């Protein structure tokens, strides 16, 4: 079991501080989403790219994944061409960093369209990016998110792509809060899952759509069940803590969340 954390957790840290903390707390890898507190975009400078490589190497930390902001569901050919161009540039960066994965989002459905309308054009975008990823040695990860949160919809999309370099990033929080049990998600996605995001939250006043993030094992996410099913299924990829401090500044500081999560996940995986 390999533990990583997303640099979303530490918007106030430099690249070097994020890598040093990963090593100090005992994480094997880091998932780069932020660099010096800012989201990584296709135009990231050569200096930033060099620092990402050097900092990870200096502290003996693997780069688990490079996270993009690309949303592959787009309504027009021009928009699809633009996201392909951005995705290819991010794939170039991932290859330069030695990252095995590039995360993309499905995105929202354009106004006036249905998921059925967008299945083929979205699959074509992913196919183009996946084929480019073959050349770069990088696998595309489609996150369970936005209009493509339900496992059934994600599976329809990856089957339409039909490339081994397009896999699924299972954000177990998103599918669970959308109404799926972990068993339902894994029964559908199975071997399509190449990467996993974990986080915890608790419902507010028992309302299904109202919840707040909290430290692992302080909420009502079925983390033990998730880990049990993954382990029973032979999953051997990364478990990545996605502590979204960048988007939710009110949650605990990274100095609290990162060292708290690692021993909990390590012990949980050992027990299940």
TrEMBL record:
InterPro entries from the UniProt entry: IolE/XylAMocC-like, Xyl_isomerase-like_sf, Xyl_isomerase-like_TIM-brl
Q: Which SUPFAM superfamilies match?
A: Xylose isomerase-like
Organism, scientific name: Ktedonobacter robiniae
Protein known as: Xylose isomerase-like TIM barrel domain-containing protein
Xylose isomerase-like TIM barrel domain: from which residue to which, for each copy?
Answer: 20-267
- Any Pfam family from its record, for instance, is AP_endonuc_2
